[in-house]
């Protein structure tokens, strides 16, 4: 929750004070996350970098209107998705389904708990995620990697919350069945 308050305060600083430091912080915090979404939709690294930077250019150009944004994080993801779709439309690629979704690996921050996960397990998890159906994979990554709530993912992808719930259920069932989570037996 603190993160969203920080994003809201950054949006306020941009809207009212033209605060360039706030803009640089927003870029540093969100570029990698938005880039992964745009890259997953376009499949082209250079294009994704350019389009993600376009999101931030758009934010700066429209900074006076940012104070009215209710959920800044969702707003950023929707902007990124819209810019990617506009690009795909401009090059006349059909936007039929998410089946062409490019693979990108789950990024795991190194906390004490994460260190316990072996690199082999991380590899198995990434392989299992890559095998998920396209929309299921995108929903899973937005929820788990980007910490968006179901209603926020629904807003970003323009689908219902029930669809997000269904896709997460599918993802979790497939992941738990394909990854053996074996705990060592506790001896007394």
UniProtKB/TrEMBL annotation:
Q: Look up the coiled coil feature and give its residue ranges.
A: none
Keywords (alphabetical) are: Sigma factor, Transcription, Transcription regulation
Q: What Pfam family is a match for this entry?
A: Sigma70_r2
List the InterPro entries: RNA_pol_sigma-70-like, RNA_pol_sigma-70_dom, RNA_pol_sigma70_r2, RNA_pol_sigma70_r4_t2, RNA_pol_sigma_r2, RNA_pol_sigma_r3/r4-like, WH-like_DNA-bd_sf
All residue ranges annotated as the RNA polymerase sigma factor 70 region 4 type domain in the record: 125-175
**Which superkingdom?**
Bacteria
Q: Please give the Gene Ontology molecular function terms for this protein.
A: DNA binding; sigma factor activity
Q: Which GO terms describe its biological process?
A: DNA-templated transcription initiation
Q: Which family does it belong to?
A: Belongs to the sigma-70 factor family. ECF subfamily.
| Name of this chain's protein | RNA polymerase sigma-70 factor
